[in-house]
């Protein structure tokens, strides 16, 4: 089975008013698949499958092991945040611990989709169902592996995005 990341499409500000669709904040980072096979964790670059970022992010790996699934594939954005803030800053996913310390950032996996859970391929489920499944898959007490919050109130989310100076929704 080939896994391909869901790609965002350009939209207009007026699209935020469409309450039939789920919206999420867009984070500035590196598209990454979190692959969990028992206690083996890989953080693969989702666009080319060439890089496994796990070795540079042992804290993310330790938290990902706490996901209560034998096997899971999550679609995420490996994002760096200024320590003590919700401000995301771009840094390559291959950043070393030394670079992260120098920049004063901590990595987080911001998970926004689930493609596989245990022996089930869930890619063909409607997104709303996958979003709920993802919410039940990632423990809420994790600090570095987080589910991206979803809402149908796009106008509020768009305003929050603008206030934060993020990339959008």
Structure overview:
- This protein has four helices and seven strands, in the order ββαββαββαβα.
- Helices cover 21% and strands 28% of the residues.
- Strands 1, 2, 3, 4, 5, 6 and 7 form a seven-stranded mixed sheet that branches.
- It has helices spanning 58-64, 97-103, 127-137, 154-164, and strands at residues 29-37, 40-45, 71-82, 88-89, 105-117, 120-121, 145-147.
- It is of the alpha+beta class and 169 residues long.
- The two termini are 29 Å apart.
- The longest helix is centred in the last third of the chain and has 11 residues, at 127-137.
- The mean pLDDT is 86.
Summarize, please.
With 169 residues, this protein is of the alpha+beta class. The protein has four helices and seven strands. Strands 1, 2, 3, 4, 5, 6 and 7 form a seven-stranded mixed sheet that branches.
Structural class: alpha+beta
Radius of gyration: 16 Å
Give the overall form.
globular
Record field, number of beta strands: 7
The biggest beta sheet reads: 7 strands, mixed
Count of helical regions: 4
What is the N-to-C succession of helices and strands? EEHEEHEEHEH
Mean pLDDT: 86
């Amino acid at each position: 089975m080939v896994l391909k990341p869901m790609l965002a499409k350009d939209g207009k500000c007026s699209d935020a008013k469409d309450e039939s669709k789920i919206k999420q904040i867009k984070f500035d980072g590196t598209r990454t698949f979190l692959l969990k096979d028992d206690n083996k964790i890989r953080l693969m670059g989702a666009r080319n499958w060439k890089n496994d970022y796990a070795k540079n992010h042992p804290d993310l790996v330790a938290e990902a092991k706490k996901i209560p699934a034998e096997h899971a594939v999550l679609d995420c954005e490996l994002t760096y945040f200024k320590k003590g803030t919700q401000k995301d800053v771009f840094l390559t996913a291959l950043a070393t611990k030394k670079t992260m310390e120098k920049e004063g950032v901590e990595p987080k996996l911001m998970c926004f989709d689930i493609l596989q859970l245990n022996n089930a391929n869930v890619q063909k489920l409607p997104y709303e169902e996958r979003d709920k499944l993802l919410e039940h898959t990632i423990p809420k007490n994790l600090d570095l592996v987080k589910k991206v919050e979803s809402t149908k109130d796009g106008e509020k989310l768009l305003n929050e995005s603008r206030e934060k100076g993020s990339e959008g929704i």
